[in-house]
Amino acid sequence: MPQTNLARRKGLVVSVMIIVFAVYCAWMIGPYLQSILIRDAAVTSWSRTVTSPIAGEVTSEMPNAAAVIGEDGHVATVVNDRLFDKTAAIGALQARIDHAAVKRDEAGDIIEGLEALRQQRESRTRRYAEVFRAELATTVETLQSEIAITERRMEILGRLLSRQRELRQRNVAADAAVDESELRLSELESARERLSSNLAYARIRQQAAEDGVFIEEDGSDPNWSQQTDFALERQLLEARARKRDAEQEARELNVLLTTAKQEFERLSKAEIVVPAGAVIESVQVTAGETVSAGDVLLRWVDCAVLLVDVPVSDAELPLIRPGMRAEVVMEGESDERDATVMLTRGAAATLGRDDLASIAKGRQDGVAQVIVRLDAENREGECPVGRAAYVGFPDVGFLDVISARLRL
Prior knowledge:
Number of strands: 13
Shape: rod-shaped
Number of helices: 5
Distance between the termini: 41 Å
Radius of gyration: 57 Å
């Protein structure tokens, strides 16, 4: 009898242990069983928020929720017609540019007038130079002629002196006549030397004049060759400097004006576009409403990228890797669709409504997340965002979860 009671006690302990183990396993594997028995996943996509880039009034009709955007992608127009300070700034810059243009033109007129005066002076100087060269040529010709005449006179006087000397030897001519002829010949020789020297100097001056250097007979510069009007040159330099400054100012102001106009255009009107084929998820404003920069206008989803938000247990999450195959069955269907694990998130870092167009109904605190992407051939042009779905992972089974949980 005592042995029977002992056996019963042992059997009771074993039964209790089995029950406790079963309850633990059920509690531990419950989220996994829920995920495979209940379609608590949801078809979703990335949710995009469109904000107004400028402050202003919405002047276009906003699309309705669930509308599919056409080829132009246009969804809204925002206009700001109260940029009075920008308009005034553009007007002021344009006025400064016009004033700089006036200063540039005035300086150009002054330069043109001064250049005309300088050309007149240069023309007069060239005329003086032509006359100077002509006078030198005449001087050279005159000296050459005088030298030739002097040499002929010397030749004649030399013959006369020779006859006088013969007659004196015969006591026919007086010594005074011979002395007078010798004196006259000496004077002619001196005159020829002086004329030759003057001719050589005239030729030097003539060559210098051809090179643009003008020398008077006394070695000084002609007054007209020094008639550089330094006041005129200074005025030219100043006018050119004023013109350059005005041109530089105009260039700098034009850069500022271009920037101001670009800023005005950017702030005065904004055309909001999204990719063609996008589906409007929600609209926050209506036509005629005033918005500030950064205000949300609408949200849209791209149904070309279909995802599924899958709640999973913490025990199952480590077994799922990106790139792993998944099978998706949507609510109301029985056919499986192929999908691929895109990313996994722990319970403390799941993606929510700020990132996804819809989230799984099984999404709650302490539940991890897997995002799978439907393969392109399984979309069939539909946009089933928000539909419930069941997602299975063929490579992850019940025993795999138990082993991972028990660290086996």
